[in-house]
Amino acid sequence: MVLTNFTVIGGSASQSLAKNLANKLDANYIKTDVRIFPDGESKVIIGGKPTGKTIIVQSAYPPIDSNFIQALSLISKAKETSSQVFAVIPYLCYMRQDKEFLSGEIVTSTVIAKMLKAVGASKIVTVDMHSELAIKYFDVPIRNISAVSKLASFFKKLKLKDPFVVAPDLFWAPQAKQFAKILDTESTAINKQRNRKTGELEIKQSQKRDFDGRDIILVDDMISTGGSIVKATEYLKRQNCGRIYAACTHALLVDDAEKKIRDAGVLKIISTNTIPGKTNAVDVSDILAKSL
Asked: Scanning 147, 164, 200, 213, which has its CA 20 to 30 A from the CA of 287?
């Protein structure tokens, strides 16, 4: 696939993915350098002058605010000399804050949408955006692509024993069903409830399933602290299941999340490269290229 007169600029948070995307598109690649000052401020330098149509690739994972400000800065700078700027933000932050759950809460996803428009983004591309509701807050075209089929294809190559796909909450039940269809197997979702004030998780009794001896694939859009995955793993192990794997698009894995998940009994965590890390096993550059 060749896109003439396209330039790909890789932000500091997504340089490897950006290079893969540039290769897929046979586009010119420009790298960036970032200097972090003692007070936490970022100084971003682009290693070239983009012209024509420019693709900025920068995920907004922790440190979220810093990485997102860098994305805004890159879009703004590219807009000076480019006819169009496509903002590829594989992990788009603040999309969980899509409505006022408790009185006084700010719907931060609306703020993110306004900022991306203000700096000159012509189009936004993201992967497995947490909230479909938040899409309506964007005044510029936004494309939300799914990595579910890519993740499922990875697991299809593994030697699994009668696999069962499980979403750790009802939110991702449709995606778990899609995942299971590719593996030609069953799926279900755990009825997990989170206290909005305390953040505590509780699993409610749901439809009884026979997990006995079956390998489990826990599927979610993101794994942050690992709380949902740990709770689901503990619940599944009590059902005498087989091996448990965790699959996600965005492996945030904050603090000691990975250790907690493994200690709970998850054999392996598999993620895409929307956020770079050692759990990356699935490259999303090809589906990003198609979306452009």
From this structure: 164
Q: Which of 31, 126, 121, 125 is nearest to 82 (CA)?
A: 121
177/244 same-domain check: yes
- What CATH number has the domain bearing residue 245? 3.40.50.2020
Return the ∠ at Cα 157 (arms to 154 and 159), rounded to 5°.
Answer: 125
Residue 278 belongs to some domain of the structure: no
Same-domain pairing of 43 and 170 = no
Question: 191 and 102 in one domain?
Answer: no
Considering the domain architecture, whether residues 140 and 35 belong to the same structural domain is answered as: yes
- pTM higher than 0.90 for the full model? yes
pLDDT for the residue 136: 94
Residue 251 is predicted with a pLDDT of 98
Q: Which domain holds residue 49?
A: 6-146+284-291
The overall average pLDDT reported for the chain is 93
Question: What digits encode the pLDDT tens for the residues 39-86?
Answer: 989 999 999 999 899 999 999 999 999 999 999 999 999 999 999 999
Do residues 64 and 126 both lie within one domain?
yes
* Rg value, the chain, Cα: 20
Q: pLDDT tens across 218-259, in order?
A: 999 999 999 999 999 999 999 999 999 999 999 999 999 999
How many domains would you assign to the chain? 2
